[in-house]
């Protein structure tokens, strides 16, 4: 379809606010006499607090409260309203022992679909270096820091299980008493009969692949402040992707009614999934409650944020693929060990999600996925851009390359042979592929990088610097359907001049969703962008309900709600115009701020005149608003491919990316410039994932070794090549304006494409990332290349 | 009907916020680097600026801008968006010469129903002492004040017309060029044939009555701040009763689209109608625009607020009443001269409104009302509690007393003979009296004050201290229908625990409307008050549209919207419950947080369970909200009476109120304690109106003589007797829960009741208020009493 605003690279609605510094983030807000909270983290990866003496800390002038796990029951009982606490009691929940889950999932009425509740606000048992043992509230940060040092803790140190191997070892101590063998969960799935499929195949090819722990490194660290308002409700302002879920989890952590919590989200400086978790808010609220509800601010330092929020799960995969001589895959058997760290958080969902989204790329008659998610004494892994898919696609797209090499097939051809077709229905999710341009994406990428010429050119290299090209594909999803609820809300209010305000449940966290939604509204209502005013702040008291920003669901899922709201407004405008003109509404449309005849485009009446009438008609006045909720029960599968060209310095192990292109099938692109920005960000993150990033820990003690931005090797702009972004735009019939998701996809395939390019250049297959110089160098030595 | 929450004296929802000081008023908010604005007021009542030199002021370090009328065109052209300014130009409006009206009326599509546009943001012609000549924006208040003194203005001083008599004199200079004879308007009405009615009457009794200029004296002076946000929109935070109207008027004053203005109203410290006017916001915005949109605060001092906002119109009435021997009135002829001061503001509406609301008390077959509203060189009169009715009822209820005396009839009996009956339809407004308990109110008041005993006791007094009793009745209205639009909006969002947020267009300004609305919602939804969270701040971007708080319209008109919103939520809850239980929704009700069988009250399912389902049902999830607008086209007429007992000190002229009772027919009383508070406030204001308050001006120059709280004699708590409040509660069939208005009514009848009591005590009829000791003493001398 031809659109006026959708598909245009309009300026971000928050551009001016952000470049002028006027956009207000959590840290820009303050409450009068706000206190400061600080956390005492465990120095041990696995230890029991035998005794804790806070008397010296409490005695320090300026210290308002010191909290340990012992104080929580008191806080909870004092917080619960009469009636509420009894309700909890009858539900046989011991408020004193209340545990909660932190994962930013929508919640489920089905108890078996809820997240594991294994977290305390403050713990008596440290499960990783950094675990929250005690907290201080003081008049300023310096006093709070001093007070932390005055807390005397005696620990009983236990064996630190710093790897999944150690945790799975028979007789290993249990990190959580109720988890046998330290296994959080192990449910997977099977399609067809994998044993038979492998047996029937001409070849069975095996491979092992491993990814490392990385961290989101969003610009803005976790920060929040909390207080009790004069209505006895808890108010939290926080840098989050999921205000409505923060509300629920804070309430659950205290055992109070959810309606008694109010969460406000100002501008957010990035999240990448780490703010799809409720890391600091329950403790922040407990801090406030400990000082009678006075406002307390809790801000993590970078060092804290890197270990005490969430990380990306490290995975170990074993893959066995049955394939015929013609390159057609019969069956795939994957086992995966996922390291979730000390607490569940998103836990096994990550493995499940990777295993689920992976299925949409190469459907096979047999597929067995056997993941286990294992507790270790390392920082907690959670949601991070891609949510399990960068791991599984690193493994499988490396594996595909290995198969191609083994079978001496063209890596593109073997993929094309196995790629999904439109109309395919996934057996488990029942999601149907309604659009798929992965083949066109591959062709486009192949051309952009001059694949065939370079393939020919880079054959049989020697010397210190060798070049190669590689590619890797991925499939993803648009939101979580049918795994979780996909509820989104939008509210539109039309002003007297025909301009509108747009309120969203979905959160702008830097990705540009506010702009994309405004474009959708402008498109439907026939008004220019400057007439759409997006309320970017979410406030659970008034913002339409939306589960939040994650799972690349905004443009697709929340977009449906936005389109629905805009269509409802349009319908009301046309109904008013009909009352004013007697022209049947179905003959009318809105264009350039005028109600027009749909067919001829002839102007009937100015939108402003209709809007004025909606406010001031003495009989029919009814200001035009819409307040909609949309429960999406559909999913659209986006696809894409990375093509990378690398130059490997054999002597130093340094890998340089010469060219890299991501080509995406994300349906219609609402804002090409923003879309390109998403791709740039995702690919850059993928480059770090492939080549340099890894959170390191002392193997014996579990102590973090590089939880800072100096030692953690996030690629800088100097390390990043020009990134090419291209799109094959075919409208998906299910998405609003034909969109499919694009938020997370760009991170999924760069790592395997780079790995495959390195393989192409050097004939050395790296099955573990990051391929940092040290590891590359060692591997080259091992393989005899140097 | 029996209610659970409605009719109970529940605690104000803002009680804790206000007594703890946590409630935030406009002055409690700040923007970074906020500048301060100050106004240069004219020292002359009538003068033309011949020249103005701001160079010295501009040169003062810390001064960011100095504005005069010359700067306004530039500001306006710079502000208008491309497209908008052209639209204005084609409408043949000269932006440079743009005038606007300030009255807080809803706006009308009918041009002839709009307010007179006679105001400039800054003027070249001063029309009262205090008129806005120039403005300064500086980094702090001290510098701004200094800069004001550096502005050099040369005036051509014109004759100051400080009374309506002077303004109406032939040949008087014109205050506004386009107003012949300085008359703003003179339209009145006539019912029947007054000449015939008077001719047919046994007696024709005449009287003249006069009221003075008084001021609202709300605790919080006018204060606002304004800036341009990064979306190029104007944001104003202001202490107002009418945020949506401020939006319109600011836009009109600048000639820009209304949607480009956003108005936020925090807690407000009283308004009494003075904040139903847009006094400072356009200038505040101009100040910000003069400094490139940076935030500027404008706060009036008490001295400024008392002359440069609004006052109550002074009136002079001549009344001629034709009455028969049996006490039945045949016809009334009223002429009224209303002094609107230098600008129109609410202007003639005040006279019209008084003449309109007055009609509902004593319907007669002939009634002629001839008001004229006259410009003078005094501060601008506008809306003030009662809106013209305290004036006309002072006149007419004094007049009724005079008639009773003349005819030697009992003052109560003569009134009862003429009082309206249920079923009466007003010939002009077509409003039908659906409930009326004025007779019961009179009986109750008579009993409370022990009227008959005192009447007997106080006959034939002599001596220095004489006592008397008096009474006076009134009628009012609930909102403005059919004069103006009565649109109100409410939005309710139900949380997962069944608690709700309530968003209102109607503004809490201290009167307690938030509490009353919360009670209505709690009543309909069967939940306790603590589960209703009222969003007390209005923000035109997101708040449902409501014209504002004035005309005693909240409980009745906005209450309709609130009830409608709550009923819609209830309907949705029961529909969900039906889906969950298959019990027909029409058999169900909500009570004590449970969905119950309507008839038996038997519990079916907890509200919380339904609410949870509304959020998390995988198929039917649809969070329960309502966002309604209600266009009330009906009115309910409240009635009431004041009974007062006074002791007059003949030698000093001091009048002491011994007892005073207001008895109200306001339909169902939602919150008796709040209602009593309204009555206490209104009666106290009425006592000041009767006995002590008057803004004084030098007759020759028009200079204010007592525009401060020391010299302006507002009654203190020491001057105020115990005030008795009583209600005759009969539910009006049109109001939500049977309510009628109560906000303004208590101010209407105290003054004439006190006047009549003084008459009873002294046999001296005061036909002019205030009856302050000086005036009483003079009158006693004049009548030979001393």
TrEMBL record, chains A, B:
GO cellular component: xanthine dehydrogenase complex
Domain Aldehyde oxidase/xanthine dehydrogenase a/b hammerhead: 20-159
GO MF annotations, alphabetized: iron ion binding; xanthine dehydrogenase activity
Alphabetized SMART domains for the sequence: Ald_Xan_dh_C
Cited SUPFAM superfamilies: CO dehydrogenase molybdoprotein N-domain-like (SSF54665), Molybdenum cofactor-binding domain (SSF56003)
Keywords linked to the UniProt accession: Molybdenum, Oxidoreductase
Pfam family, one: Ald_Xan_dh_C
Name recorded for this polypeptide: Xanthine dehydrogenase molybdenum-binding subunit
Source organism of this protein record: Desulfosporosinus lacus DSM 15449
